[in-house]
Amino acid sequence: MTDRGTDGATAITVSPAGGGARTARPAGAPPHGLGDSLSPAEAEAKARGTFPYTADLWAEGLLWAAVLRSPHPHAAIKRIDTTDAAAMPGVRAVVTHEDVGGEAGLGRLVTDRPPFASEVVRYHGEPVAAVAADHPETARLAAAAIVVEYEEREPVTDPEKSFEAPALHPDGNVIRHIPLRHGDPAATGEVVVEGLYRIGRQDPAPIGVESGLAVPRPDGGVEIYTATTDPHTDRDRIAASLGLTTEQVKIYVTGVPGSLGDREDLGFQLPLALLAIRTGSPVKLSATREESFLGHAHRHPTLLRYWHHADRTGKIVKVEAQLLMDAGAYADDSAEALAAAVSFAAGPYVVPNAVIDGWAVRTNNPPAGYVRGEGAMQVCAAYEGQMDRLAAQLGIDPAELRARNVLGTGDALPTGQTVTCPAPVAELLAAVREAPLPALPKDGPVEDWLLPGGPEGAGEPGAVRRGVGYALGMVHMLGAEGTDEVSTATVKVEGTVATVLCAAVETGQGFATLARQIVQDVLGIEEVHVAPVDTDQPPAGPGGRGRHTWVSGGAVERAAKMVRTQLLQPLAANFGMSAELLSIADGKITSYDGVLSTTVAEALEGKELWATAQCRPHPTEPLDASGQGDAFVGLAFAALRAVVDVDAELGSVRVVEVSVAQDVGRVLNPRQLRTRIEAGVLQGVGAALTEHLRVVRGEVRRPDLAGYPLPTALDAPDVRIVRLIEERDVVAPFGAKAVSAVPVVVAPAAVAAAVRAATGRPVNRLPIRPQSAVVGP
């Protein structure tokens, strides 16, 4: 199929023989089913500002909450005095760690991260106490009135020093070490290049900050209304921390105002639940932007040292690497992020020999966790930097060097796992290499907005240098290392209306729209609704990595097909044929020979049909003591070419264009897919140029959107989707692959490569600092 991007560039997709293309729909027909650009059901409400988010919720007798957070990255707590705060007019409750653990507490502590700090605080912003009051300002004043006597300790902020530092946590400072050995560890190449790379602390910075409403239950439990992306895990953790059964905790998922990473900040949800139980009243908490920056997890800052061995033709002989990930104070998802980083440390290249060691360690820096492309993004910037170094050393064009080493289906990863899914990396690279380059500015005056630095940039046109850089990358889909990936969905049909019940949270990735399309495609029903998510439904697992397209979409498809069988079997029996001989298309049911022809509406009249189904992909296994194992269900790949303009005197960078060729398996919604790729590229550009949460000696500096500059519309490059390869993964429902994470992973590396090409500087740190892009005398 051929589709046109919003910038007018032609996006070419290639389907395998017998790919099952959809029948052309009548001209003027509304989008319907898989392969069409169906719009999200909530799009108009969000555009008009009438879509209900958690911050909009209200309840009779509502109280307001505030959380007191530690001003120190590391300190012993000698005393907590809540007397003055509790005595303030309007204050209904003050809670600390004493209300959670021990005989007088409501429950018990969770294993890794306590709901409130008790004897010691381990990072700047860690919750120490919480207050409920009848007015938000009263709650904030009461939280400020809590007296905490601290004994400051020297914070451990350098992950390299964490190995020898005193234990920061009862579980020790090393969360995980993965020593990967593949092939011959003693192998050497004729040419060796070494590089040291540093990746900064990127924050998800969601458009809407955390907000929640907790309502006490008559059975002593609590109901929580919040914008979580993994409600069942949150329910289980809250119940365990508060000593409740899972039946006593119910979570309703409200509108999620953006999620590029982990929204499951239990330091936010646990105090909210505890206060509602303590007061017997509904309690609401809406975080400030500062609290949001302090509370949720960030991308792992990572230090990476590499040695690439190659022969004189540029073929890679061996990759050696040492990866050190700063997990912050608590483990969270660091073990999983490290597994991805170590497994993909050599990139989508054929590497016969590898010696890779990865560590995730604790520090007194803010906690790190799941952010889109976790682990894979950090190593991509490093191994692509190594490919540029190797190309320069050998005098080979950087794109050509990559082409000589690309991975393909049937090759093995350094983990020993054979790539069985489609891996058209060579075709992707060829597509971006062949795409036309953007025109250079014409002779004559140059508009200010064309200069690096934006409209107020101080640069001169004569100092601007253009660079072109290439990068290849990969991500895994679903969980890894034996994670039990499963999702359950129910499809109900009453009359000509279908309803989907599935606990997969719509975070902007388009699952709700996909579920509608699946039911439309399978059952031929136009009106399809997706029910709100709560924990009374069976678990569907967290979002991220395209897993809901796979497991939740697969569950919806199976349930819809079961309903289809219930619908078609009676009709087929009346004509003495099997249901498999009937087809549904454009709202009509027809037999193979044309004898039977009726509408879906007529066949459903007076019927109520429903079915529940699960989808569980094939199992994976943990990496063994040598980093070997079939740890991943599926992989997705992309090639990007970045074109940048760099002011060689000021070091400012403008990304002019990013060309994308991506392995998508199958296009399920063309418009939505393009949007996801464009958004992923922009997040990657932010990581490359502007986004870095500054932490000095463990203290977060300027935790606001002025101190943490996100890319704006002026920073957004032209994104040209030059090729989408639709080579379906046969083990995935619909054959589709993850879409949005791959551009996030690859874009920072491509931008860095382009800046290297423009300046000749090594550019080994992200985000790229101006001094790294200045071309000195």
From TrEMBL:
<dbReference type="Pfam" id="PF01315">
    <property type="entry name" value="Ald_Xan_dh_C"/>
</dbReference>
<dbReference type="InterPro" id="IPR008274">
    <property type="entry name" value="AldOxase/xan_DH_MoCoBD1"/>
</dbReference>
<dbReference type="InterPro" id="IPR036856">
    <property type="entry name" value="Ald_Oxase/Xan_DH_a/b_sf"/>
</dbReference>
<dbReference type="InterPro" id="IPR000674">
    <property type="entry name" value="Ald_Oxase/Xan_DH_a/b"/>
</dbReference>
<dbReference type="InterPro" id="IPR016208">
    <property type="entry name" value="Ald_Oxase/xanthine_DH-like"/>
</dbReference>
<feature type="compositionally biased region" description="Low complexity">
    <location>
        <begin position="22"/>
        <end position="31"/>
    </location>
</feature>
<dbReference type="InterPro" id="IPR046867">
    <property type="entry name" value="AldOxase/xan_DH_MoCoBD2"/>
</dbReference>
<feature type="region of interest" description="Disordered">
    <location>
        <begin position="1"/>
        <end position="43"/>
    </location>
</feature>
<protein>
    <submittedName>
        <fullName>Molybdopterin cofactor-binding domain-containing protein</fullName>
    </submittedName>
</protein>
<dbReference type="InterPro" id="IPR037165">
    <property type="entry name" value="AldOxase/xan_DH_Mopterin-bd_sf"/>
</dbReference>
<dbReference type="Pfam" id="PF20256">
    <property type="entry name" value="MoCoBD_2"/>
</dbReference>
<feature type="domain" description="Aldehyde oxidase/xanthine dehydrogenase a/b hammerhead">
    <location>
        <begin position="48"/>
        <end position="154"/>
    </location>
</feature>
<dbReference type="Pfam" id="PF02738">
    <property type="entry name" value="MoCoBD_1"/>
</dbReference>
